[in-house]
């Protein structure tokens, strides 16, 4: 049933791919366990990328603990599931954060495709074209390695794992890397809440050494950057504000800016592609490919 449904949706995507638009780069940010700052990093990273002139969407796929509304201090009434059920339009659920940044309240992959029948999906794709100009979409996934989380990791161009220098968190991060390595060789790592660069690199090397020994030499694990431990970060979270907005001269902001620069350098800017590779339509097409 689902396989047949996916085939019909594939045909719909193909039939809607005549116009040209930007290619969106999909970046999934995940973690082995909760409480390591994944959503804090996702939201600040999306903001910093948007401030550099890129058109950015941030998709909240952290089901059950969805808290990007808290990070951005906005109220979410409906999400992507309401669109697929025909209870809202794409425009109804989009929340503009800044001029170049849009929050897309999401749902889990299995819930999304459960409601994506051909008629609804056709309307959804037409409406979703408002997001075809996105340069990058950050997908804030749930913690852990559940099946619906793997769907998003599979669909992404880049997967970045967030961890902190805590033994339990490092063990969980390694388990996540091991699972993601079954899907792809290239994985990024962000070390959060570290004392300094030296500690970040030392912990990363430990993880990398164990991963290469157990997963294999094909694994390309890269340190995307670190975020220093700073009371300004927790202070911002309590006030429902981004630390990059509240404390633009802080070390954490300098750190997240360095990570954003790395990501921006990977983007294929101004490349014309068919809409089935861009925006929300592109994300859904990729999710369908794994059914």
Automatic annotation (TrEMBL):
What keywords were assigned to this record? Answer: ATP-binding, Cell projection, Cilium, Flagellum, Nucleotide-binding
Q: Which Gene Ontology cellular-component terms appear in the entry?
A: cytoplasmic side of plasma membrane; cytosol
CDD domains, sorted? FlhG-like
Q: Name one GO biological process term.
A: negative regulation of cell division
Gene Ontology terms for molecular function: ATP binding; ATP hydrolysis activity
Q: Which Pfam families match?
A: ParA
Q: Where does ATP bind?
A: 33-40
Name the InterPro entries for this protein.
FlhG, MinD_FleN, P-loop_NTPase, ParA/MinD_ATPase, YlxH/NBP35
- Alphabetical list of PANTHER family matching this protein: CELLULOSE BIOSYNTHESIS PROTEIN BCSQ-RELATED, SEPTUM SITE-DETERMINING PROTEIN MIND HOMOLOG, CHLOROPLASTIC-RELATED
Name of this chain's protein:
Flagellar biosynthesis protein FlhG
Organism whose genome encodes this protein: Sulfurimonas gotlandica (strain DSM 19862 / JCM 16533 / GD1)
What taxonomic ancestry is recorded?
Bacteria, Pseudomonadati, Campylobacterota, Epsilonproteobacteria, Campylobacterales
Q: Which gene encodes it?
A: flhG
């Amino acid at each position: 049933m689902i396989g047949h449904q996916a085939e019909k949706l594939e045909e719909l995507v193909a039939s809607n791919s005549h116009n040209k638009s930007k290619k969106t780069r999909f970046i999934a940010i995940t973690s082995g366990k909760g409480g390591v700052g994944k959503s804090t990093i996702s939201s600040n990273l999306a903001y910093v990328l948007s401030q550099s002139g890129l058109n950015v969407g941030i998709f909240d796929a952290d089901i059950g603990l969805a808290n990007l509304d808290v990070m951005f201090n906005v109220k979410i009434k409906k999400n992507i599931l309401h669109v697929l059920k025909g209870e809202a339009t794409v425009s109804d659920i989009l929340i503009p954060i800044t001029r170049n940044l849009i929050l897309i309240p999401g749902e889990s992959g299995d819930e999304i495709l459960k409601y994506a029948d051909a008629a609804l999906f056709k309307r959804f794709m037409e409406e979703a074209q408002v997001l075809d100009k996105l340069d990058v979409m950050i997908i804030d996934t749930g913690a852990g390695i559940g099946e619906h989380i793997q769907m998003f990791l599979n669909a992404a161009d880049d997967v970045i794992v967030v961890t902190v220098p805590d033994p339990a968190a490092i063990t969980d991060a390694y388990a996540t890397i091991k699972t993601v390595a079954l899907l792809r060789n290239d994985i990024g790592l962000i070390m959060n809440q570290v004392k300094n660069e030296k500690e970040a690199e030392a912990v990363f090397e430990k993880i990398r050494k164990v991963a290469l020994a157990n997963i294999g030499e094909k694994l390309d694990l890269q340190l995307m950057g670190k975020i220093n431990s700073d009371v300004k970060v927790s202070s911002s979270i309590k006030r429902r504000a981004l630390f990059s907005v509240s404390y633009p001269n802080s070390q954490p902001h300098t750190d997240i800016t360095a990570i954003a620069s790395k990501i921006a350098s990977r983007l294929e800017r101004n490349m014309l592609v068919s809409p089935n590779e861009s925006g929300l339509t592109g994300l859904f097409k990729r999710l369908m490919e794994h059914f």
